[in-house]
Write a structure and sequence with these properties.
- The chain has 450 residues and is mainly β.
- The chain contains 3 helices and 23 strands.
- It folds into 2 domains: 100 residues, Carboxypeptidase-like, regulatory domain (Immunoglobulin-like); 291 residues, no CATH class.
- The strands form 5 sheets. Strands 8, 9, 10, 11, 14, 17 and 21 form a 7-stranded antiparallel sheet that branches. Strands 12, 13, 15, 16, 18, 19 and 20 form a 7-stranded antiparallel sheet that branches. It has a 4-stranded antiparallel sheet with strand order 3-2-5-6, with no helix packed on it.
Length: 450
């Protein structure tokens, strides 16, 4: 495959190459730990208790920043957290009783133990009558909604759009190579998407709606790319894998007026998939690469957003969403995160060609019936050495990126040990780019200081 954009001469690299990386099985090339679990409320003797039924139990970080608030039902509180893999402990706090416990995410059994004597719970006002007191209800006048969960965590009341710069905001970044099924140069800057999202739940902790905001951080791709997102019902975890189900057709619908129909809309080839944009060059408004060569521009000048509703809401599940890239002139040519199966719109005949080692057995897309584990093994969109065409991370601020044609190994010296350890070390490798402006490009410098 050839490139129509990447015409710069390669910059000499170190002795390390991506081909030499040896990574453990099951590695997702992500800095995130995606966990779905229950906390059992127990009394002082360790027996199940319903004393907190109908009251909130907050999951926070160790500084007290809210990660997720849920209602205790039948003596249990269920959580769906996506946190940096370096975070091992979460603080759980019952605000009505002012009780807290720190519980390890790796604990097989997670229990919130109550003391022998409980303080009296004051009478709270509940204006909308949904069972969640106004003090804890993010929508105190709407009985259909109760809680908002912001991602990336911790909880933030800022507008999703980047216009609020009064505090540092954590962002999710998805970084892609564009030449699948052939290996690229592993600068991982062909398309980088920067986003935040919010998910809304009702008083019964049921996922009912949400909003996404996207920015095209870099676009150094060799061809024109589109980008979509596919939604799943996340039913739980099996060991360290997510158990996912396909949703019924049209179970998720876009909210009219919440998106720019020129670029964004339902994907006609994917049930519950939305196309964010069909062509990155057009969606940006002004042309830029933001990779150290070619044109550069402030990527935050324009953004794409959409809101959605889930009808009917999915019981006992949570939203999981995974992006897919596709060639603008060849919709079936998709590129996905490692371990995620192709969408129904993908051309399966491209799998296992060139450098791709994806499985090719028939796939079951039956809604709410077929369940699969992510990352699927043997992994989709992986080389024989389990190398990806995309990675994901969270970053508190504006991510620097590898200069055009510079391997991410040379741009971020800690990346190699992070990958080969399966994310056991150097979990914040992205904080330590090499101090060399010919290898690392500071996209954030393009954003005017307010």
């Amino acid at each position: 495959m050839t490139s129509c954009k990447k015409t710069v001469d390669p910059i000499p690299t170190s002795g390390d190459t991506f081909d030499n990386l040896q990574v453990p099985e099951g590695f997702t090339w992500s800095t995130l730990n995606k966990s779905h679990f229950q906390v059992q409320i127990v009394d002082v003797s360790g027996n199940p208790s319903i004393a907190l039924n109908g009251y909130p139990l907050d999951a926070t970080d160790l500084k007290g920043n809210l990660l997720q608030r849920v209602t205790v039902i039948d003596g249990k509180a269920s959580y769906y957290l996506e946190l940096n893999s370096s975070i091992n402990d979460v603080r759980f706090y019952a605000p009505t009783l002012e009780i807290e416990h720190v519980i390890g995410l790796n604990n097989q059994t997670k229990q919130f133990q109550l003391p022998a004597q409980l303080k009296a719970v004051k009478v709270y006002n509940d204006a909308d009558g949904d069972g969640v007191a106004d003090d804890f209800d993010d929508f105190p006048s709407d009985p259909a909604l109760a809680y908002q969960v912001f991602y990336p965590s911790p909880y933030s009341n800022t507008n999703l759009k980047s216009g609020d710069d009064t505090q540092i905001i954590i962002w999710y970044y998805q970084m892609f190579e564009d030449l699948w099924p052939s290996k690229g140069d592993y600068d991982l800057n062909d398309l980088i998407i920067k986003l935040r999202m919010v998910t809304n739940f009702d008083a019964n902790n049921t996922w009912v709606s949400g909003t996404f905001d996207y920015y095209i951080w870099t676009n150094g791709a060799s061809i024109n790319l589109g980008c979509g997102i596919e939604f799943f019902n996340w039913t739980g975890n099996v060991d360290d894998k997510m158990s996912l189900q396909y949703l019924n057709a049209d179970q998720i619908t876009l909210v009219p007026g919440s998106y720019n129909a020129t670029f964004t809309g339902p994907d006609p080839d994917v049930n519950n998939g939305f196309i964010i944009f069909n062509n990155a060059d057009l969606a940006k408004g002004t042309d830029y690469w933001n990779t150290g060569v070619g044109q550069s521009a402030n990527p935050m000048n324009s953004y794409l957003s959409f809101s959605y509703n889930v009808t009917p809401p999915t019981q006992n599940g949570h939203m999981a969403a995974f992006m897919y890239l596709f060639y603008s002139d060849d919709r079936g040519h998709e590129i996905r995160p490692i371990g995620m199966p192709p969408t129904t719109g993908a051309n399966w005949s491209v799998l296992r060609t060139h450098d791709d080692a994806s499985p090719t057995a028939p796939w079951d897309y039956t809604p709410h019936s077929a369940t699969f584990l992510y990352p699927y093994d043997p992994p989709f969109y992986a080389t024989a050495a389990r190398h990806p065409w995309g990675i994901e991370l969270e970053f508190e601020g504006n991510l620097k990126v590898a200069f055009e044609k510079v391997s991410i190994l040379d741009a971020f010296p800690q990346f190699k040990d992070w990958a080969e350890s399966g994310a056991a070390v150097n979990t914040d490798w992205y904080n330590y780019p090499v101090n060399d402006p010919t290898k690392v490009f500071d996209v954030g410098a393009l954003i005017p200081v307010k």
